[in-house]
Amino acid sequence: MLEVRGLSFSYGDFSVDDVCLEVGEGEILTLLGPNGSGKTTVLKSIYGLLRPRERCVFIDGKDCHSLPLRERARLVGYVPQSHHPPFPYTVLDVVVMGLASQLGVFESPKKEHYQKALEKLKLVGMVRFKDKPYTELSGGQLQLVLIARALVQEPRVLLLDEPTAHLDFKNQVRVLEIVKRLAGREGISAVMALHDPNLASMYSDRIALLKDGRIKAIGKPDEILREEILEDVYGVPVCVLEFNGLRIILPKTEVIQ
Ligand SMILES: Nc1ncnc2c1ncn2[C@@H]1O[C@H](COP(=O)(O)OP(=O)(O)OP(=O)(O)O)[C@@H](O)[C@H]1O
Ligand SMILES: [Mg+2]
């Protein structure tokens, strides 16, 4: 289980303050909040790309940031919000690189590693692109490859920063279904940042609403996705409809009265 105890980080003119989260085995926690509210900062701090002020990230009680990098890489997978491919590796090689922490320093990947990578590419529907340079993918295809790269490590904790941002309607659901399945069947704890409150409602066990670097509210989707709470966080009128037991969240505009 992932515990974040009082995470604080400052860029100077922006800070994340005292973020506390607990994500159980098999649980999906979604960070929701306006642009610039600190979602990416929180995820990067959990992963250790940013150094929070105190030691505050624990997995099964172990201080995650003091673990050797290789050990940490086995525990936590991270799918970044944006990524600029530096070199035209093939798609398959990029996914195999997700296994770097499981190889010896001078060890080359073997057949079984490529096999694992192919399985994950298949899972995200990208296996037919395996030999293509990943500098030549569309934004959504690149996102799917990065998800496969995080999955191939088979981490205990999966951090996903807007995993659906560049994806079409079908692939948004495909990726979130994969996360749900991994949580349900393999007990992975997932923390993801999303923008769409409807997808958050469908795929989260709990939601943390962030505003100005602080958690404004945290709880089950039906406790959090309420008109007055969303209006306060986003500063727009919101209407929440119930349909077949589902919550549908829409901005209140002249089109929807
Ligand atoms: N490298 C950086 N240096 C200085 N300030 C930064 C840096 N990265 C982000 N910030 C600032 O930190 C704040 C939070 O950014 P963050 O990327 O965490 O927001 P976010 O909630 O992920 O937003 P979005 O929904 O747009 O992805 C913003 O005001 C941003 O300008
Ligand atoms: Mg972000």
What's the layout of helices and strands?
Blueprint: E1 2-10, E2 15-23, E3 28-32, H1 39-47, E4 57-59, E5 62-63, H2 69-75, E6 76-79, H3 91-97, H4 111-123, H5 139-152, E7 157-161, H6 169-186, E8 189-194, H7 197-203, E9 206-211, E10 214-219, H8 221-224, H9 227-234, E11 238-243, E12 246-251
Parallel strand pairs: 3-8, 3-9, 6-7, 7-8
Antiparallel strand pairs: 1-2, 1-4, 4-5, 9-10, 11-12
The chain binds adenosine-5'-triphosphate (ATP) and magnesium ion.
Residues 11, 14, 33, 35-41, 81 line the site of adenosine-5'-triphosphate (ATP).
What does this structure look like?
With 257 residues, this protein is an alpha/beta fold. It has a single domain, classed as Rossmann fold. It is 34% helix and 26% strand. The chain is built from nine helices and twelve strands. The strands form three sheets. The protein has a six-stranded mixed sheet with strand order 6-7-8-3-9-10, with helices on both faces. A four-stranded antiparallel sheet has the order 2-1-4-5, with helices on one face. Strand 7, helix 6 (169-186) and strand 8 (189-194) form a beta-alpha-beta unit. Helix 3 (91-97) crosses helix 4 (111-123), helix 3 packs parallel to helix 5 (139-152) and helix 4 packs across helix 5. Bound molecules: adenosine-5'-triphosphate and magnesium ion. One of its GO terms (molecular function) is ATP hydrolysis activity. InterPro entries: AAA+_ATPase, ABC_transporter-like_ATP-bd, ABC_transporter-like_CS, P-loop_NTPase. It holds the Pfam family ABC_tran.
